Amino acid sequence: MAVVDTTRNALATIADEVARHVGRQGLKEGEAAGAKAVLRVTVERDVKRIVQVYWTPFAAEIPGRSIALHLEVAEPTVHWAEAYLSPGDRNWVFIFAERPDGEVQLAKYGDYATPAEAIDEFFRQSSWYVLTATDKSWSDVVFTVDDEVPWGEHQQIQAGAATSSAISESLKKSTIMWLRWSVDGRQHTMPVWYLYDQKADRIYVLSGERQQVLPGAEKMKECDVILRWKGRNASVAELPAQVRVIRGEDPDWTEIADRIAEKRLNIPGAPEDTAQRWRDECVILELALRA
Fold it and tell me: For the whole model, what pTM was predicted?
């Protein structure tokens, strides 16, 4: 009877979320030596982190195996952030900064009920307290992944560190994908039909016709594209995408709308007539995967 390593499976789920954030920031995998800033993804065991808040020390303990994130900047001053992500315990984020007198102080910390919350805060807080504070940006950061981290092709796809034929195959063979986006503080997730332009590497989604209305589509600037295998209940990847809203008055509306109408099934009338009707009722979302 096979023994399932449930801890490793749980760590893989955390690694998925880390990879998605790495992809959203457009980080590239690379060597730490010579990089302006480095994000290290590691597996650690039985972490006990003792820190001092003002004059009072306290200990953060994370039993068992956890995934740790270490963002480090050495110049012009030392700043770094740590996150410890546990499948079954509290999750911690610590941020440290070098003061003008050369002493290092704890700039920010927090504990979170879920790894997803901690990962969100790690990237959000690090952006200000580590990168902006040292005149860096996420484009200056390379990331490395230790061998113990469950980081396979699936995570590489999420992080944009590898180009996978699975993504292209899914986009070409499927007609439906899922989108997740936030507008006015509300998150939406829904299946959509689309047109994939392989040559331009762009995805086009129509919103506004009777069968497909995406709430707040005209305000959308970014989203997550969730691809699934056709005919299988399995995910290929979740990838962040930049969104450009194309309206009826835009010069490239007619060409794109005509192509969408040609692909759209079960619509009476000529494609160009359908595209003309859409001009007054719909917007087209052009999605560029950030991979």
Answer: 0.69
